[in-house]
Specification:
single chain, mainly alpha, 11 helices
């Protein structure tokens, strides 16, 4: 989602909204996060979940991005998601919903710590103090970027998005070209083989692919 969301908002608001600080950073770590989450798709549906689950969720994510880009165009404010949530939500629930949107940002801290834990082969686990330190560092860095580097970030995110798509094309082209023929699967296997080895109901196993898709 960060790639499509940042592109949509950047086109509609010229990079003046919250996307300047929010969407560029996930692009930097998305390859490692995507790689760390592949085991979810492989064990919960296999090729069918990885391909058709990605496409299915991508359609709905695109609709969300189009809606968010309209909001950014109508109200291109810093901290846009908080403002939009509070402005358009019901008065009875707007405070709670704005708080939930704020907690979504904090989840990036958990994802950073999770990536480090996975890369260390689960030999490192963050303490409460370390999570607080990571959260503080992220907030301070975002505050500096939002205050002093808005124009730079608006230009930088367009460059990073282009690089991200280029890397995707490189993987799509180079991986099949470099894979020995005996290790390649045919199209029937890639597009229609459903493998559920985790024991979840097949429908639920297919849905487990959707959170993975939101990172793209």
């Amino acid at each position: 989602m960060p790639v499509w969301l940042s592109w949509a908002i950047n086109k509609s608001s010229k990079g003046t909204s919250r996307c300047g600080r929010h969407s560029a950073s996930p692009l930097a770590w998305s390859p490692s996060c995507l790689a760390s989450l592949f085991f979810i798709s492989v064990s919960n549906g296999g090729p069918v979940s990885m391909i058709w689950g990605w496409l299915t969720a991508g359609i709905f994510i695109t609709l969300v991005c189009i809606a968010v880009s309209e909001l950014a165009s109508a109200a291109p404010t810093a901290g846009g998601l908080y403002y939009w949530t509070h402005r358009y939500a019901s008065p009875r629930s707007r405070n709670l919903l704005s708080w939930i949107v704020g907690c979504e940002d904090f989840m990036s801290v958990a994802r950073i710590a999770a990536c480090v834990t996975i890369e260390s082969n689960f030999t490192w686990a963050p303490t409460t103090a370390q999570l607080f330190g990571i959260s503080t560092a992220v907030l301070v860095a975002q505050a500096f970027l939002a205050c002093f580097a808005t124009r730079i970030m608006a230009r930088l995110q367009s460059f990073v998005i282009a690089v991200n798509f280029a890397l995707i094309l490189v993987v799509i082209i180079s991986l099949p070209a470099a894979t020995p023929k005996e290790f390649k699967n045919d199209a029937r296997h890639a597009l229609g083989n459903f493998e559920n080895i985790n024991g979840w109901p097949s429908g639920f196993a297919f849905l487990l692919k959707f959170p993975h898709t939101t990172l793209v």
